[in-house]
């Protein structure tokens, strides 16, 4: 049984490098949090219409996932798209759960599903870019 666990772990490591993915997710939130904070300050002290908040969140999400997935795959030998996709999906999941806790409204709707799809696609693109930046 122990040999089987080692084989599963090795197989997983061949497809998704968990340490690099974790570093990518941390990087994505190190990008996101200051951006959200600066945007919140901007909204507080200006007359900027709040209807553009979702666009700012979307742009921040795309940039964070793209940079983080590229970073997480720059030293990976293969399957960069898979590592990047994983970074994007985990990032969006954590962001979605955090926003659901704050809003006290956990509901998955079309907008949420679209966000997951965009996170996965942007993560794949970042993973492809990262693996080719050698």
Automatic annotation (TrEMBL):
Domain of life: Bacteria
Pfam families for the chain: DUF3792
Keyword Transmembrane: yes
Record's keyword annotation contains Membrane: yes
Keywords, comma-separated and alphabetical: Membrane, Transmembrane, Transmembrane helix
InterPro entries documented for this protein: DUF3792_TM
Ranges that cross the membrane: 21-43, 55-73, 80-98, 110-131
Signal sequence segment: none
Protein name: Putative membrane protein (TIGR04086 family)
Species annotation: Ruminiclostridium sufflavum DSM 19573
